[in-house]
């Protein structure tokens, strides 16, 4: 049979639509029946709402309704219900939605929104982690203890403080670890909040029909979660809510959060169920909707003189902003992987999710890993320097392997951990590491290299589930229907490849249902955590088995033989010992008709499902538990050319070697990795949410919030190692997020080596480096 | 003298057709193309001229349609992504895997198309200057570079930047 | 999405435009002349401008010319920065114009628009200041021609209703040695093309006989060419190192201290960049 599915660079199924402008995203949903909503957002980071005067807004011709938070007794949130969809009594961050105008056109809604007058009584602003954690700090939430915990196994807040979450890891015996250590290094780190900047701004449409049926059109990574949360917030049955999701214009975690769907629902309710479209402006997308967490970290590592790591003490303070959303889960996920992919017997981690008056946060590519990895990997370099060991060799020496245990005390095997040493060995030669990590190239220029490792597990709920349905068309092609959203990761195409491989079919003969409709599509947890190919892929294989069984059963009647001697492949059911005896699947896929008219069978529908197994919540006191089925490990490196006179630099190369288990689509996989790397270089070099003294956001535009642009990218070096994950389709591991994780750390390590000053924060602008150099100069005077 | 003092019908030349649209003087071209003509290939993203997702061609030159009034387009030829049919750059974007989510793609393709028509012999420096006008958040720009280079002349006249 | 309405006019002559302006102003419409319009649209979207009428000057012939005649280079105010850059009639102006926004935006942004912009940077102005350009302005008394340095103090000083029509540059000046550099907050100035973003510091310099003219952006909250700075820097009795070291004391205003760069850092970049520029022009 010809090579059909896995390991082939199949162009994505929706390619033609995407290059012709015919691809439909949620923003493209147009209809004359639509009304438009516009958010009125807070100008203060922390203030009592004294009054909201909507009378002038109502006077604008074309306004249908204006709603404010005080009309609702409603608190939402995926883990703890701490979040009123529209601010009530007080605002907790700059940009927080506090009223919505619904009007006949977007222009009218926006004009009227400008006429809503809000009177504030400013409160002391919790504008940093330090001020949030100070004794007697003003509280962002006064009544944390009274909030309903949706996931009580996952959240441990401290009443009377701004600590929304506290996760502990207690592995081994830390004092013993220090006793065994001959060299100890410590450092502090600071990483700011940042923005997702999916090119399609967040948006949602809601309509409530006369019979109570709620129709949502959402640009989301989690249509089934939108349904679940709407049902919980508004006490609806899940049959009452249908969520439609077409192609999504980028997510990066930012579209896992359920916010605008709730507000659009309230808006529709206010206009008797008419369809209301709510699109955020870019400025709102960057301030009103959640971003990526900020982190302050303190790391202390002990090792023997030969470089064997013995002890780790790490404190992570996570700036989750004004509401918890998934901030508590990211705090937990960081703690669970807190060592980096290194074996350490004695580990003590305290991870705090802390409320501040900053924009709240949600999942972001890597689910927190990129931040704590920065702290660990910078400290690894410091340790290597203190020991006089090559930083790559130090990592190689301590890399996790089979039989080692993780911080949450999961014992690893070859399948679950993969092969980090192989990744390090490969990257060593790709980066020409042996030529040295720093060389002066003349005229104030230094070329330097930095390295970082990464690892990540899924951090999914223990009961996360996926489904798949396969049907057969008259022409023998197949339809694959799954609940994953196409956010750009190419998952629909990958899943078609998995099915093609399984059935030995041409992938072009497999149609995928691109859009998701929660009323029709098999369910899927969320399109997140790099888990689609693993979870949905397993469901697809299960569905394919089911399909094959049914086809063999019908074919066995037609071909007059037991089903056991039949095989399915190439669009046929054939006799194993003689493939010349066969029947095409299209002849039996929708019932088989004998020449005289008698028929048997009926529509063949392959159905499959998958659910996570053997995951265990983390223990409150020790952290013991299992958050995901396996890890993906990798090594990354960056080479910079640094100007020692003006502190500017150029990123020459960036490299990644990932243990992918199995590479499904080589070109697609490379693009996924380089895309993550580019985003990591952006975060490391320039991206940050800047807050003013009053907590107001200072750079909510792409003019002042800088992204990597065309041509600023370095040369990318990407390679893979393939250690199969035995419970995954064809051995694959998730790789969609991983390209970003170690890059800021590798960049900082390269620049630290180049500038010869410890760089323990991002973004690493020339000014940051200059300031660090100057600080060092001042210290020595 | 062309005046538009309130919402009124105006005639735009879009993708080789004359189309009547109802526009306010303050309506941007992007808004009118999408909401009046259903040409949703041009994407709203920053509406501030920073990202390039709404790029269309005006008399062959790339323009960010979020920062152009519809009325300004009177008397000019507008080309949107829907007006490109099987152009080399569209094929190159597929062959080179030059997009993921696809939301920036129309704008990138329009800019690349104009570049390949106006400067078919563009070198690295010109390519970079032109394409820095567009942001992509999914790719690392590697595949877009390959795509544009594959449709330009094989031997660039300029030095590499 | 501009949330309010305005009226759009497209006159074909200066007189017509001026007449419209007077009429609309009298009606309280707060009219604005409109060329590329990028700033009017983006600021209106954010409620930072509220014109009730805009008067598009792009169809006025005088505003649209680009010619070289009698030793003078004449550039209409409605010429786009891309057109100017590509014509390359004045290389220093091409360099400076080529650093405004991005290439696609420069297909819309005009020279007049950049000079009159409310954004603190306005890179194209630098080339015009150091070249002692003249500006032709249409007003109640008809056309007048004045030295740009006389009427550009932080911003272009215009009477209500006046229109920037053309810039006139002595062609001699377009042939003398010049240089120009811009650094943004991101670390990639090594590529000449990587210049999207507001400057931390931007300098244009031009050497005429033994004198170097300097204009700056990103240093203070407005672009400037300062007699004090320039005569200090051109003082032949002091060595360059010393002059550059002291230059911050001579500036016309405080150094900008904002999220794109602290004042201290801008001073550091200013000095480095000046050294570099002097090396290039004197070296």
TrEMBL record, chain A:
Domain spans labelled Aldehyde oxidase/xanthine dehydrogenase a/b hammerhead: 20-124
Cross-referenced InterPro entries: Ald_Oxase/Xan_DH_a/b, Ald_Oxase/Xan_DH_a/b_sf, Ald_Oxase/xanthine_DH-like, AldOxase/xan_DH_MoCoBD1, AldOxase/xan_DH_MoCoBD2, AldOxase/xan_DH_Mopterin-bd_sf
Gene3D superfamilies: Aldehyde oxidase/xanthine dehydrogenase, a/b hammerhead, Aldehyde oxidase/xanthine dehydrogenase, molybdopterin binding domain
SMART domains assigned: Ald_Xan_dh_C
Molecular function as annotated in GO: iron ion binding; oxidoreductase activity
Domain of life, per lineage: Bacteria
Record's keyword terms, sorted: Molybdenum, Oxidoreductase
Pfam families, A to Z: Ald_Xan_dh_C, MoCoBD_1, MoCoBD_2
Keyword DNA damage: no
UniProt KW Transport keyword: no
Name assigned to this protein: CO or xanthine dehydrogenase, Mo-binding subunit
Automatic annotation (TrEMBL), chain B:
Segments forming a coiled coil: none
Keywords, sorted A to Z: 2Fe-2S, Iron, Iron-sulfur, Metal-binding, Oxidoreductase
Signal peptide interval: none
InterPro entries hit by this protein: 2Fe-2S-bd, 2Fe-2S-bd_dom_sf, 2Fe-2S_ferredoxin-like_sf, 2Fe-2S_ferredoxin-type, 2Fe2S_fd_BS, Beta-grasp_dom_sf, Diverse_Oxidoreductases
Superkingdom to which the source organism belongs: Bacteria
PROSITE patterns the UniProt entry points to: 2FE2S_FER_1, 2FE2S_FER_2
Domain annotation 2Fe-2S ferredoxin-type: ranges: 8-84
Name of one Pfam family that matches: Fer2_2
Pathway as given in its UniProt record: Alkaloid degradation; nicotine degradation
SUPFAM superfamilies hit by this protein: 2Fe-2S ferredoxin-like, CO dehydrogenase ISP C-domain like
GO molecular function: 2 iron, 2 sulfur cluster binding; metal ion binding; oxidoreductase activity
PANTHER family named among the record's database cross-references: OXIDOREDUCTASE WITH IRON-SULFUR SUBUNIT, XANTHINE DEHYDROGENASE SUBUNIT E-RELATED
Name of the protein: Aerobic-type carbon monoxide dehydrogenase, small subunit, CoxS/CutS family
TrEMBL record, chain C:
PROSITE patterns for the chain: FAD_PCMH (PS51387)
Entries under InterPro entries matching the protein: CO_DH_flav_C_dom_sf (IPR036683), Diverse_Substr_Oxidored (IPR051312), FAD-bd_PCMH (IPR016166), FAD-bd_PCMH-like_sf (IPR036318), FAD-bd_PCMH_sub1 (IPR016167), FAD-bd_PCMH_sub2 (IPR016169), Mopterin_DH_FAD-bd (IPR002346)
Domain FAD-binding PCMH-type: 1-174
Pfam family, one: FAD_binding_5
Keywords: FAD, Flavoprotein, Oxidoreductase
Organism domain of life: Bacteria
GO molecular function, one term: oxidoreductase activity
The protein's name in its UniProt record: CO or xanthine dehydrogenase, FAD-binding subunit
